[in-house]
């Protein structure tokens, strides 16, 4: 597609063709209806019986099915032409807008896309001191419009070619074929269900024209933004809308709770001492739950807007901050990424653990992901790599256990979270551009158990390296069982980390302690200690820390975790062979 072809294209002619096919479909439908009334209905009410009648009725019914299939196929041509018009009209409008802006800025665009301008400040046609910047923007917009037209051309051509083949070879008269074609056309207007194979999701997304894609983002931001297999930039765009909708919705729900009931019931109301009003108790429970999520959503919005005064910036920062997931399921869901994982050479994805909440994602958790990013960039620079390309994801796609109950002692949240995390990384693998990225799956605290469970799904985890820090066990006995090779499993454990030293459950059962110590000396609450020699992973150096701070210092600034963060950066950037090592315990 070139500029002149798209600019001069008579897209209105497509609507003329669509109208003609609509007329044909209507007329054909009337013939099918007449066939039903004048032939089939008459025969069904006749007295004609016998062998010949049976054969005739069978053949007539077959003809009726073929006519109905043909009617469906004609209608599908009309739908394809409508999508063609929408796609080409949008691309043409984008091109014309870019060319008009170029003219406004006194830039001349040639048919081949080259741009020239007057650089003489004394000339009445001087393009201005910002001409270079304007040229880059205009060129990018022109390229995007041409690519949009090419995409529409390819997808619509494939649909029309398929329907034309059906018409020429007779397969379009088959009811099953017509149904399959109709289902495929309907699928273009409906997002795949959550949990669909990411490669299938990617294929579906690529089958849409740009105009159809934009309609899906506009009409279904919650589905598109959280669907693994959708490109990261698209997910970010959809989730920006979804986040604003969630904030609006939760503000509305808080308003609809009504005024606060009185807190206490009087002696007269209870025929006894004053007690807390049950209506107040329920109102407060609902209010607190809504407010907690709203605070989390608003904090993430502030982070994206660059309104948190901590120097990390927002959407215009370098690297860009993308919102890859947001939702209010359970305790809340949020996935953010410093850098675009679809374009990065090295991708890290951290799963948090104990006490992680939605409210923390926009604050300290965003800082953690950025520290990993910075450490990986430094490692790449130290190894003299040109233009290091990193993406650092913070993945809160599950209900992390809290210290308000026994959830941290159970495996069920890790099993559920592991399935979602496995799907997420598969999605990143599917949408990555160019050569596959070097992917590092990271798990901190209970999050390491989530990563461990994610590796146990058929096909394994779409990761090249695994980092486990502050781990209470990952649900397997050997590093080799995690599917990436024991030499690609890295473990960091602070000497004084209480979580990474939580004993196996049997140690708390009278009579079992001695047996457990003998039969499973490296046992933790969720399996074999990943830092033990028997587990077989590579252990990297971290600071001992104290019993109160060591668990949270693995990604800490100012080297509170010793060599921990620099080692993590080396692994993420693909230089795990340069880590500072520590002997397993």
What does this entry show, briefly?
The chain is an alpha/beta fold. The protein has two domains: 187 residues, Ferritin; 266 residues, Alpha/Beta hydrolase fold, catalytic domain (Rossmann fold).
Number of domains: 2
For the largest sheet, list the strands in their spatial order: 5-6-8-7-9-10-11-14
Structural class: alpha/beta
Name given to the CATH architecture of the largest domain: 3-Layer(aba) Sandwich
Which CATH class of the largest domain is shown? Alpha Beta
Main beta-sheet annotation: 8 strands, mixed
The average pLDDT score comes to: 89
Q: Tell me the total number of β-strands.
A: 14
* SSE sequence, one letter per element: HHHEEHHHHHHEHEHEEEHEHEHEEHEEEH
Helix count from the secondary structure assignment:
16
CATH superfamily of the largest domain: Alpha/Beta hydrolase fold, catalytic domain
The CATH topology name of the largest domain reads Rossmann fold
Secondary structure: helix percent: 40-55%
Distance between the termini: 63 Å
Rg measurement, Å:
31 Å
Strand fraction = 5-15%
**Which regions are unreliable across 5 or more consecutive residues at pLDDT < 50?**
506-519
* Net shape: globular
